[in-house]
Amino acid sequence: VDEILNGEDGTDIKCGVVGGIGCSWPLAQSEQRVLQPTAQAQSQLGCPIIIHPGRQSDSPFQFIHTLQEAGADASKTVVSHLDRTIFDTKKLLEFADLGCYLEYDLFGTEFLHHHFRPEINIPSDNDRITRIHMLVDEGYEDRILIAHDVHTKNSLIKYGGHGYSHILKNIVPKMLIRGISRDKIDKMLLANPKQWLTFK
Predict the structure, then answer these.
(1) Which CATH superfamily includes the segment(s) 2-197?
(2) Closest alpha carbon to 46 in 20, 67, 76
(3) In what order do the strands lie in the sheet with 77-79?
(4) CA 61 distance to own-chain centroid
(5) Does this entry carry the keyword Plastid (predicted)?
(6) Best exposed site among 27, 110, 164, 173 by fewest CB in 10 Å?
């Protein structure tokens, strides 16, 4: 709370987001101990939270319930990496009903073998767009965020990756072709992040 209200490490630079909080599956006791004060801080300040889920499809449910039980507001919470976590449509819609933000943030990441879960198929960008289109059709456009997880050198254009412009240059035009309207895309890119990042 002090880092949000007064600044971090003796500076006047204030934190605007709590996270990303890494969670495993099943949730470890140490992670539960982190989630509880996170929920309390959010309840007190109305600040946004972002969670990095474990790689099993039940993981997002577990930590959202843990946060809610400790007083957090799911509507101010982002669950990242859903594109590699929940594959079943029925389960995804059930999770969407919990009211948190659904982040598809691995655009540009496509590979054959998932080191941590070799039994799953990592979706392609086309698969991500299809899943997002389904969520939009189901009425969840106010809850969707999109991003690319540029975190390694080979993600940069200089080293053969898609770079930071991938969503605007490649994904947005493809979304338009696939029938996602401009106003829905603008919600994902502009309105939803603004709403999430605004303290209540």
Answers:
(1) Metal-dependent hydrolases (3.20.20.140)
(2) 76
(3) 18-22, 49-52, 77-79, 101-104, 144-146
(4) 14
(5) no
(6) 173
Residue listed under structure tokens 């300040």: 45
Model-level pTM?
0.93
Question: DSSP assignment, residue 124?
Answer: P
Q: Which residue's structure tokens are 């039994």? A: 119
| Nearest of 17, 24, 61, 62 to residue 41 by alpha carbon | 17
pLDDT tens digits, one per residue of 46-100 = 999 999 999 899 999 999 999 999 999 999 999 999 999 999 999 999 999 999 9
DSSP classification of residue 157? G
Those residues whose C-beta lies under 8 Å from the C-beta of residue 95, and which sit 6 or more positions away, are 60, 61, 64, 79, 86, 102
Rounded Cα distance, 13 and 33, in Å: 25
Say how many Å lie between the first and final Cα of the chain, rounded.
15
- Count of other CB atoms within 10 angstroms of residue 98: 17
CA angle 93, 19, 64 (to 5 degrees): 35
Integer Cα distance of 192 and 176 in angstroms: 18
Angle ∠(164,167,168) on CA atoms, nearest 5: 95
